[in-house]
Amino acid sequence: MNPEAQALYEDMKIHLGKFVPDFELYYKAEIAVEINALKKERNAVILGHNYMEPVLFYSIPDFKGDSLDLSRKAATTDKDVIVFCGVKFMAETAKILNPSKTVLLPAEKAGCSLAESITAEDVRALKRKYPGVPVVTYVNTYADVKAESDICCTSGNAIAVVESLKSDTVIFLPDKYLAGNVARETGKHIIFPSISPSPIIASSGGEMRKGDEENLLDVQLIGWNGRCEVHEKFTVEDIRAVRKQFPDVAVLTHPECPPEVVAEADYSGSTNAMIKFVQQSNAPHFLVLTECSMGDNIAAANPEKDLLRLCMVRCPHMNMITMENVRDSLLHNRQVIEVPEEIRVRAFQAVDRMIKIG
Ligand code: 13P
Ligand code: SF4
Questions:
Q1: d(Cα 171, Cα 116) in Å, to the nearest integer?
Q2: Domains of the chain by range and CATH?
Q3: Quick check: 159 and 185 in contact, CB under 8 A?
Q4: Residue 168: CA atoms inside 13 Å, Cβ hemisphere, count?
């Protein structure tokens, strides 16, 4: 092993040794050194989402963060190449914001169940059904869907974005649970129109009143039936079972969790906001209900905190990004993310409006 890899291995053993087997640290330290050399050679920046596996998260990103944070970094980088260690909609957002750069996504098929739940034609159909109603789309959508929207939002700013529109009625797509949580926070109620993939469903985030479909004046959030395949799995019973054993646990949830789960928790926020909460709180135990690699990453960075683990769900899409395919993406220039210019300029408006809100 070369001295640089040896030093990285020793360092990772101290910080990650509790979470990652020794042979894995040893093997990946050598790849990390290769990646960091390629990064210099190609004048690249590596952006790492909070859900990356612990060794990758620790060893190679120049910037780590949530979707909003990484979008901002992508927009302002002066490097030639952006390697996005995240999923496709995130890499597309980087390309939308900074089109002169080469944007690489190490795993071509790293998708997202939310992004796949809705098409641009679905958004056009909603706009025909509700003319003049502003459309907010979660960044977890593909570029052509963003292009049909007035403004995007992330989990970190969804409420601020909805409130910025100063409109009684807002189309909010495609996450039905995020919409339910925004509805609860803003005091709005929510309906799911009949063109949504499943029939009208009431959300516990806000009551759907009889006649909402016909009475648009009384409607406040028009939702869609998309769901995150990771966060939909957490239940109120999970939280209650942990509280029984640890009554003083602080429970944190991502707002992609069902509204009844969020209501049962002590705090809900974007991945960055949850990390900050753990850093700043003196709670004796934490339960972080989100993708399970993030729990390892928080625990590794905060060894003095007690993180209870309910690690049952790894995002299969985030999980496709590996040390090996990050190295290969830089070596072979793949997978290059392209967004047709006509779509990009329209999507840019929606993402840029969001970034300006903060
Ligand atoms: P954040 O923007 O909070 O990082 O969330 C992204 C995501 O995909 C959560 O599942
Ligand atoms: Fe999409 Fe859920 Fe995976 Fe996030 S965790 S990328 S929302 S499937």
A1: 18
A2: 3-111+318-332 (3.40.50.10800), 114-227 (3.40.50.10800), 231-308 (3.40.50.10800)
A3: yes
A4: 6
Q: What is the pTM of this model?
A: 0.93
Give the CB-side neighbour count of residue 267, counting CA atoms within 13 A: 21
140 close to ligand 2 (CB < 6 Angstrom): yes
Q: What is the pLDDT of residue 210?
A: 47
C-alpha 10 to ligand 2 mean position (Å): 32
Distance from Cα 10 to the centre of ligand 1, integer Å: 31
Closest ligand 1 atom to 139 CA: 2
Contact 262, 181 (CB under 8 A): yes
Q: Is 229 in the pocket of ligand 2 (CB under 6 A)?
A: yes
153 in Cβ contact with 228 (< 8 Å): no
| Separation CA 269–CA 253 (nearest Å) | 7
Residues facing 284 on adjacent strands = none
27 closest CA partner among 47, 46, 41, 6? 6
Mean pLDDT is lowest, of 106-115, 203-212, 242-251, 276-285, for: 203-212
Q: Which residues of 107-142 are buried (b: 16+ CB within 10 A; e: fewer)?
A: beebbbbbbbbbebebbeebbeebeebbbbbbbbbb
Question: From the CA of 208, how far away is ligand 2's center (Å)?
Answer: 26
